[in-house]
């Protein structure tokens, strides 16, 4: 029985709190429309905050992504015949031919070759990796 009263009291407490929040919101609107002088300081602080968030976004998201893209492009340009590579699909093979059109032929074993787009090479492995497997 006491749980029922507890829930009722708790619900009443929530309703009173919501009512107080709404009243304070409308009262602050009424005070603001009474003709308070314009504040130029809030616009400046808003602009400063926007610039700070822009810098955080640049240094936390854009710059590292650009750095990874530059490293990946450098990796793609360095792929040559005889390199052992790991593809994004999980294949490990030796590059047998590099086409100018952006494709690479990879020998997975002595009898199997696959042609993939150069962008799907995830990493260039050290020499002898295929023999160690």
From TrEMBL:
The chain crosses the membrane at residues 12-36, 42-62. Keywords: Cell membrane, Membrane, Protein transport, Translocation, Transmembrane, Transmembrane helix, Transport. One of its GO terms (cellular component) is plasma membrane. It comes from the Bacteria. It is found in: Cell membrane. Signal peptide: none annotated. It is a single-pass membrane protein. One of its GO terms (biological process) is protein transport. The keyword rRNA-binding does not apply. It holds the Pfam family YajC. InterPro entries: Preprotein_translocase_YajC. The keyword Protein transport applies. NCBIfam families: yajC. Belongs to the YajC family. This is Sec translocon accessory complex subunit YajC. It comes from Yersinia pestis. The lineage of its organism: Bacteria, Pseudomonadati, Pseudomonadota, Gammaproteobacteria, Enterobacterales.
């Amino acid at each position: 029985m006491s749980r029922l009263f507890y829930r009722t009291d708790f619900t009443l407490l929530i309703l009173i709190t919501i009512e107080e929040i709404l009243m304070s919101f409308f009262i602050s609107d009424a005070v603001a429309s009474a003709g308070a002088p314009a504040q130029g300081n809030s616009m400046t602080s808003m602009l400063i905050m926007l610039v700070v968030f822009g810098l955080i976004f640049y240094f936390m998201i854009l710059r590292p992504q650009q750095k990874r893209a530059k490293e990946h492009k450098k990796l793609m340009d360095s792929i040559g015949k005889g390199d052992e590579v790991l593809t994004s699909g999980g294949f490990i093979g030796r590059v047998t031919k590099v086409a100018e059109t952006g494709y690479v032929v990879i020998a997975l074993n002595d009898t199997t070759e696959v042609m993939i787009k150069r962008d799907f090479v995830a990493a260039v492995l050290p020499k002898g990796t295929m023999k160690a497997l």
